[in-house]
């Protein structure tokens, strides 16, 4: 009985790149195959809590019975490799390449949404597909040009200055803050707030939660002086992206923590993007959806 395996040269690619790898066909007996069909596809799925009487049922588990789901196939690209009736016994390695199309959402796994890229290989004996294998891969958006532009947001007692509105995941986010509030300053809290909005049919739901937090004690905050803050954007931060059924956004939230007064808050939308790949990265989609 023959077996096949897909070996990708990388597990993270950029849209528009050539996806390259090797199909390994192994058989202890003589085995004849005529062609190999590669199928590259991207699909999107969303899920929200099921509805009863207009009320969302919030659950702690992700069983299919408790959630409404919707899916969309973005593309399915097929490419044939002719083998001309090769007969193998042992191991045969067949290199392949297929271009990843542009213009589709990047790989994404959120609380309610996911975009999954899959490569499937079918081995044909004459006109019959005898063996089939598939694997997931990560596809990122093309690396954007991050344009420097000064952004200053102000409110009563607090100002924030950024050099750009786009930041690379895997690097860091830098900002300057200036406090004009005179008294009762406990400190300054800064957070990246992630907001994911997904829809299924006519239903939709939004989840908002902080992903990164930092705090600057009041003794390090000086009135009317610009102070720098740094936030590390680890690779598990969700990028700012959207699909046909969902939108994922990020914002920088700066809170002036005051004693005996209402806190002063500034919110600034930021675009978090992947600027480079970092080693081999695999996502276990079946464990998530």
Structure, explained:
The chain is mostly beta strands and 289 residues long. It has 2 domains: 3-142, Immunoglobulin-like; 151-274, Immunoglobulin-like, CATH 2.60.40.640. It contains no helices and 19 strands. The protein has strands at 3-8, 12-14, 18-49, 51-52, 55-56, 67-99, 108-109, 113-125, 128-140, 151-155, 158-162, 166-169, 172-179, 185-200, 203-217, 227-232, 241-242, 246-258, 264-274. Strands 1, 2, 3, 6, 7, 8 and 9 form a 7-stranded mixed β-sheet that branches. A hairpin with a 2-residue loop joins β14 (185-200) and β15. The two termini are 32 Å apart. The relative contact order is 0.20. The model is unreliable at 51-65 and 278-289 (pLDDT under 50).
Briefly characterize the structure.
The chain is mainly beta. The protein has strands at residues 3-8, 12-14, 18-49, 51-52, 55-56, 67-99, 108-109, 113-125, 128-140, 151-155, 158-162, 166-169, 172-179, 185-200, 203-217, 227-232, 241-242, 246-258, 264-274. A hairpin with a 3-residue loop joins strand 7 and strand 8 (113-125).
């Amino acid at each position: 009985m023959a077996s096949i395996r897909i070996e990708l040269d990388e597990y993270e690619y950029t849209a528009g790149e050539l996806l390259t790898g090797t199909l390994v066909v192994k058989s202890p007996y003589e085995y004849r195959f005529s062609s190999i069909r590669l199928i590259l596809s991207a699909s999107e799925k969303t899920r929200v809590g099921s509805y009863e009487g207009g009320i969302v049922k919030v659950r702690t588990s992700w069983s299919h019975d408790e959630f409404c789901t919707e899916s969309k196939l973005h593309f399915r690209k097929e490419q044939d490799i002719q083998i001309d009736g090769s007969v193998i016994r042992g191991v045969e390695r067949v290199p392949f390449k297929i271009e990843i199309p542009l213009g589709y959402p990047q790989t994404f796994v959120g609380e309610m949404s996911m975009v999954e890229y899959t490569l499937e290989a079918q081995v044909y004996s004459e006109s019959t597909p005898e063996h089939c294998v598939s694997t997931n891969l990560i596809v990122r958006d093309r690396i954007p040009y991050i344009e420097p532009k000064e952004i200053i947001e102000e409110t009563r007692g607090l100002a924030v200055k950024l050099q750009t509105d786009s930041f690379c995941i895997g690097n860091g986010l830098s900002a300057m803050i200036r406090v004009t509030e005179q008294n009762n300053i406990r400190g300054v809290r800064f957070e990246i707030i992630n907001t994911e909005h997904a829809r299924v049919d006519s239903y939709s739901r939004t989840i908002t939660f902080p992903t990164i937090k930092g705090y600057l004690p009041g003794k390090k905050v000086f009135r009317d002086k610009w102070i720098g803050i740094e936030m590390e954007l680890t690779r598990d931060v969700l990028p700012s992206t959207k699909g046909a059924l969902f939108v994922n956004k990020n914002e920088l939230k700066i809170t002036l923590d005051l004693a005996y007064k209402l806190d002063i808050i500034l919110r600034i939308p930021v675009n978090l993007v992947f600027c480079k790949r970092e080693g081999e990265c695999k996502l276990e989609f079946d464990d998530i959806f």
